[in-house]
Write a structure and sequence with these properties.
It contains 15 helices and 15 strands. It has 406 residues and is an alpha/beta fold. Strand 3 (21-22), helix 1 and strand 4 (54-56) form a beta-alpha-beta unit. The longest helix is centred in the N-terminal third of the chain and has 15 residues, at 94-108. It is globular, with a radius of gyration of 21 Å. The structure holds NADP nicotinamide-adenine-dinucleotide phosphate.
């Protein structure tokens, strides 16, 4: 049984571990949380000791506290670590990018970030401006390489051309048992251009697997390989040689579980079994059937007027979507009633889509069943299919899908 090999970018002189460490939630999610600092630092250090030397963080995580903890964890071993940082979309102008980088370097207690990425694209700022700032940072040695996070395939192509001659050889996107959008186009592009994908949320942000009967396949394989389901999932994602996974583990135990994945590979027939069972389920759902709750915007009018001042605004993103830049489907849960869904992820994307295509449109969504529905047939599968990138790109094709709902 062969091992999962390090990822090479020979021309850049980089060898990266196939498994890194995510830090969203370490030091808080979007607010500072100091309650478990010692445990979090110990977890990160344990990971580094075990070879998980790529660490992904962002200025927004824990309102900067994540970077502080990463800084403390890597202090004595800075040269062993490949440090990945991200600046927020609202900091996309030249002076903002540079100021964000300076703040992050201070919190990280280092003189350089190995890979620096816009966390999300900001269509309200010409990318040329962001690129100018990144070039200044690279020339000053404060940033070694530039990456792109959450850029659609077309945005990656456009941004890469603008950044040229700076190489863009690492891009970051979600990749897990539900969201396999990268397989549509980006992965092929990455194979052709020797680019690596930093695959985030491999465990669906802790949910681990979609809530349905397919999990028995993973349980069977966990038994067969004497591994955990988490390890089987990572091994399946890592079947793609251009992928580096960045799971987040707050505890030494979880981190040890990640590290042990390097030592085994799934047999081709088992990879095939998982790939087949978890083939993407993109459904086109009338937006009028989707309830939106919680923080942020819950109505069309709020999304339109943007009272919270989001930058980019939902309207900016709507224009970008009309140009073919829908990154990925939103996530919804199908409720007990046949035609009722609740939005579980992608709120800004949802409203941007509604502003782009109006309230009587269909939106591409990954659909899960509510717990009471699990075990029943998956009704949405009948309408499932299609590619988010192709459909969003081709507006006229989308128009044919448009329905008028009462
Ligand atoms: N670029 C972006 O927009 C973006 C978006 C999301 C994430 N990311 C990056 O990707 C990283 C990973 O994604 P994520 O944090 O969304 O979620 P994830 O890695 O999919 O899941 C993390 C969750 O899984 C739990 N977990 C870890 N190992 C486990 C195991 N063996 N058994 C059971 N549960 C386990 C963790 O619990 P414990 O914490 O208790 O260990 C944590 O709650 C982030 O931390 C961040 O660095 C980037």
């Amino acid at each position: 049984m062969t091992n999962i090999l390090p990822r090479q970018l020979d021309d850049l002189g980089l060898t990266l571990p196939p498994i890194g460490q995510g830090t969203m939630g370490i030091g808080g999610y979007y607010e500072k949380d100091c309650t478990r600092d010692a445990e979090w630092i110990a977890g990160l250090r344990r990971g580094i000791d075990l070879g998980l030397t790529l660490i992904d963080t962002a200025e927004v995580y824990g309102a900067g506290h994540s970077e502080e903890l990463v800084g403390r964890a890597i202090k004595e071993v800075r040269d062993e670590v490949f440090l990945v940082g991200k600046f927020s979309a609202e900091h996309s102008r030249v002076s903002q990018v540079i100021a964000a980088a300076e703040r992050s370097l201070r919190r990280l207690g280092t003189d350089r970030i190995d890979l620096y990425q816009p966390h999300w694209p900001n269509p309200s700022v010409p990318f040329e401006e962001t690129a100018e700032a990144l070039e200044i940072l690279v020339q000053s040695g404060k940033v070694r390489f530039v990456g792109l996070s959450n850029f659609s395939f077309h945005e990656v192509q456009k941004a890469t051309a603008i950044l040229n001659p700076m190489p863009v050889r690492l891009v970051q996107q979600e990749y897990n048992l539900i969201d396999r959008t990268i397989e549509e186009q980006l992965l092929t592009h990455c194979e052709a251009t020797q680019t690596i994908i930093l695959a985030y949320s491999p465990f669906l942000q802790g949910k681990m697997v979609p809530g349905d009967a397919r999990k028995t396949i993973l349980d069977d394989l966990a038994k067969k390989y004497e591994r955990t389901v988490a390890q089987i999932i990572l091994a399946w994602l890592l079947r793609e040689e251009r992928v580096v996974v960045i799971p987040k583990g707050s505890t030494g135990t979880h981190v040890e579980e990640f590290a042990a994945v390097k030592d085994f590979c799934l047999a081709p027939e088992d990879i095939h079994r998982i790939s087949g069972a978890y083939s993407p389920r993109i459904s086109w759902i009338p937006v009028s059937q989707i309830s939106v709750r919680g923080g942020g915007y819950t109505t069309y009018e709020e999304a339109l007027t943007n009272p919270l001042g989001f930058d980019p605004s939902p309207l900016d993103l709507a224009q970008s979507i009309l140009m073919g830049n829908m990154l990925k489907p939103v996530k919804v849960t199908q409720e007990l009633a046949e035609d009722a869904y609740t939005l579980t992820e992608g709120k800004i994307r949802f409203w941007a889509w509604v502003l782009a295509y109006e309230r009587r449109s269909l939106i591409p969504a990954f659909v899960e069943k509510c717990p009471e529905r699990q075990g029943q047939n998956f009704e949405s599968e009948a309408q499932a299919g299609g590619s988010i990138q192709q459909s969003a790109m081709n507006h006229s094709a989308w128009m044919r899908k448009k329905v008028v709902c009462a």
